[in-house]
Hints:
The strands form 4 sheets. A two-stranded antiparallel ribbon has the order 1-4. It has a two-stranded antiparallel ribbon with strand order 2-3. Strands 5-6 form a two-stranded antiparallel ribbon. It is extended. The N and C termini lie far apart (76 Å). The chain is built from 3 helices and 8 strands, in the order ββββααββαββ. The chain has helices at 54-63, 80-91, 117-127; strands at residues 24-28, 31-32, 37-38, 46-50, 93-95, 101-103, 130-134, 139-143. Helix content is 21%, strand content 19%. 17% of the residues are buried.
Amino acid sequence: xxxxxxxxxxxxxxxxxxxxxxxxxxxxxxxxxxxxxxxxxxxxxxxxxxxxxxxxxxxxxxxxxxxxxxxxxxxxxxxxxxxxxxxxxxxxxxxxxxxxxxxxxxxxxxxxxxxxxxxxxxxxxxxxxxxxxxxxxxxxxxxxxxxxxxxxxxxxxxxx
Length: 160
């Protein structure tokens, strides 16, 4: 707690400011959330750390038993390898418009009311431009990001 003697401030109103970092999430064991870097190969294990990477926030909302879907979905039911690739894309540094850099995507959510699970999941996924997909055995994710062309369509390969 914070204890302040009111006489120190006379008739002025006391103003308090706080910098909150939020929750501790499960993140990859080879991830350094302070530098947003991934070192070496990931063996699939997780460690607790603070992060505002939307991929790991999404993993938490899916697997946490108190405020997420953890009573119905476990870590094994979520494609952590797809989230790992998405998380790396989210952590890439991009220009911030002021001469510096910032992570491509971050999520600093403050949930104050109860909502449908799919609505919250869709909101979290929209932050990282992806869609949640149940592939029959687990929840996976498809992200809209630059990639190599799968096929080039021209007049020469169109029939009719």
